[in-house]
Amino acid sequence: MNRERAMVTPDDLDLGLVAQSFRSEIRQWLSDNVPPGLIDVDPESATPTQTAELQKWADQLYRAGYMGITWPEEYGGRGLSAIEVSVMNEEFDRARVARMTRGVGEWLVAPAILKWGTESQKQRLLPRILDGTDVYCQGFSEPGAGSDLAALSTVGRTEGDELVITGQKLWTSGATRANMLFCLCRTDPAAPRHRGITYVLVPMRVPDGSFNGMELNPIRQMTGEADFTATFLDAARAPLDNVIGGLNNGWQVTMTTLGSERGGSVTTQHVPFAKEFWQAVEIARKTGAVEDSRVRQQLAWAFTQVEIMRYQGLATLGDVLTGKESDVRASINKMFWSEYSQAFLDRVANIRGAEAMLLPAQPADSYEPDNWTRNMLQSRSSTIWGGTAEVQRNIVAERVLGLPR
């Protein structure tokens, strides 16, 4: 297996003059501006010092006009297409530096606002996402409403010009770093399941700095981290002006957000998996495991899966170029990479042997596995978040194969 093999990449494709011009522009900008200290730094495993530098890098990208590039120009974007997003991802990968975004605010909340928000909401809310003023976390899942999101029981009632929200949300990612919660609540309990739901943006704190009727309880994961919280809402208040898409129309708005969550980065989704693969090859060589024909077979399998991911990305890009609907392809891609990741990391643990069962030296009251073990444990959630593998199979069965519900 040769990393330098010839292959067709998006860089070899004629994506049009706009994409070609944008590629030249951003390649030159990155050449002039990439901080040397951030080359090959993964935001997921960055040190506190690196995290601070990554935040500065994000602000620099914003000032240069590289946040929200698909948004219309009147809202701070550049009016470019998904093709240019793909080009951007490729160039950041080429430069070996993280492409920082404004998180779920930029790639989950903003698409919902752009499609369903009023002109006043777009003018008010979108700039605050781009400049980093508003940092969002997601309030969808509940103890009794995960994959079956329409079973949510959090209640919202109108009181004057506010929506008052009471209930519990679970697996709220990044809640301790956020100041805004995009939340689903049931505002018409008499309506059918998928109706009577409202999508609202809730400030997490009031002007004096105290919580806005919220209590955040961190959830410790298998990795030892606590990236999620159980979020309890007790009369949390949001202005009715923060309801997106109108009262009781939240399910339609939610479909826009979920479609964005499952879509991923079209042509570069395979890149981190390719890097992991070659790192695993090096481990197998160093440990001598590569001499085992079974290990070689497993590595060959992994190489094939990553190549399939790459071609799926090119096919999705083809859908974009021809204007085809790609929601179902997004479900197929999500199902494919999430299940591959679990299987691959299990195989790497076997290749590593006893080392995979040991923790690095650390204080007795802490628990922090190395990156391989951390990724293996985290991969357990990848077939759940963003729509479970079972849900994705139902989408493919019904929309592609025409099977009955």
Automatic annotation (TrEMBL):
Q: Does the keyword Cell inner membrane apply?
A: no
Any single Pfam family the record assigns to this protein: Acyl-CoA_dh_M
Residue intervals of the Acyl-CoA dehydrogenase/oxidase C-terminal domain: 248-401
Q: Which UniProt keyword terms apply here?
A: FAD, Flavoprotein, Oxidoreductase
Instruction: Using the record's annotation, list all stretches that form the Acyl-CoA dehydrogenase/oxidase N-terminal domain.
Output: 20-132
Gene3D superfamilies, sorted: Acyl-CoA dehydrogenase/oxidase, N-terminal domain (1.10.540.10), Butyryl-CoA Dehydrogenase, subunit A, domain 2 (2.40.110.10), Butyryl-CoA Dehydrogenase, subunit A, domain 3 (1.20.140.10)
Q: Keyword Signal, does the record have it?
A: no
* InterPro entries assigned: Acyl-CoA_Oxase/DH_mid-dom (IPR006091), Acyl-CoA_Oxase/DH_mid-dom_sf (IPR046373), AcylCo_DH-like_C (IPR036250), AcylCo_DH/oxidase_C (IPR009075), AcylCoA_DH/ox_N (IPR013786), AcylCoA_DH/ox_N_sf (IPR037069), AcylCoA_DH/oxidase_NM_dom_sf (IPR009100), Mycobact_Acyl-CoA_DH (IPR052161)
Cofactors: FAD
Acyl-CoA oxidase/dehydrogenase middle domain: from which residue to which, for each copy?
A: 137-225
The family assignment reads: Belongs to the acyl-CoA dehydrogenase family.
Known PANTHER family for this protein?
Answer: ACYL-COA DEHYDROGENASE (PTHR43292), ACYL-COA DEHYDROGENASE FADE29 (PTHR43292:SF3)
Query: What name does this protein carry?
Result: Acyl-CoA dehydrogenase family protein
Organism equals Rhodococcus globerulus
Cite the source lineage. Bacteria, Bacillati, Actinomycetota, Actinomycetes, Mycobacteriales
